[in-house]
Amino acid sequence: MIKYNKQKLTNELLFTTIAKWVKKGWIKADDVQGLDNEVPYTKYHLLKRIGLFIATFLSIWGVIGFFSLFLAQLADSSLGLIGFLLMAYGLGLLPFLEKMIDEKQWYKQGTDDAFLFNAIFLVFTGIVLLIKPDFDQTSFLLGSILLVIIMIVVSYRYLNWFYAIITILLINSVPIQILALIDTQLLFFAALVLIPLNIVVLKWVKKYETFDNHFFINCFKYIKYAACVMMYLSINLYVIKEFAYQLLGVNEIPLQGLFLALTIIFPLLFIALGLYYKQKFMLHSGLFLLMSTVATVRAYYAVMPIELALTLGGLVLILVSYFSIKQIQKNNTPFTFEANEEEDLSNVEIVIIAQQFGSKNIEAPNDKTFGGGTFGGAGAEGSF
Length: 384
What we know:
The chain has 14 helices and no strands. By secondary structure, the protein is mainly alpha-helical. α4 (about 80-105) packs antiparallel against α5, α6 runs antiparallel to α7 and α9 runs parallel beside α12.
């Protein structure tokens, strides 16, 4: 269940949109004075948020450092007790955080981020010290699964996009660890698992990316980008060869030509699908990963001087951008390159505005009676 007040979150989106509209002169400030809404959450400036995060982080660990002076003797003899105390301290931070969210309206202020991060870290570290794992492949797999569960709960309850990204990365790491546990050479075929897995993630996001779930809009956005990146990394030639060298100590891998072809094709495929389905996240991912593809090819196949390679690469990007603009220009869908007064507003924001500024009942003046030969009757009885 979401911890934050849903009405406040909705109002935050509403007031942000209204501020944009007022600033651009699309509506007057007087027109929105009568909105009867609960005050939205207040978010701090990024620099202030970072400063509060650091200060709160140091305060939390200052308490740990103070008590560690008395518990230092237990470090060698009773790691289990240390783990239990850390886990209890981490769990104790959560009720305090939730109380501050209710009473002090903490929301993206740095302090809540610090409490949440330390709670997760201390709980997980405490569990590790408590069970004393062997730190083998099985232990790492079980630890990853435990972290996935924790991150899913945290991302959902606190609407945190950063932990949503960590969740996707951990979900992708689980099948990789399972393949490595069975046979290390199976890692060459990890793409056969990761690509379908991330396609399922994208379909899941598309299913739940509705107005009713607009609270998760940032989480969904970054999950989609992370899924595209993970699919690409599963077939990237550089990543595959580095895995082969680190795990098997070999410099050459089977099907190297196939991985090279997929490294080149995937970004172009993302761009094409983004243009066809009018999905900006796929278009952005393709353009971004295209640079990684150029760097990968250049690392293994330096067929021309760097100056010429950069020049040709720039020309390719210009051509891709030109044809992409031509493809989406004068399009009948909302996805277009044409200038649009609402280009910085999402569909969710527009729906909220429509709900808040819905049609109002306008009373007719008393001097206009409807019927007969009066003005309102419009000649119903032969006279106006």
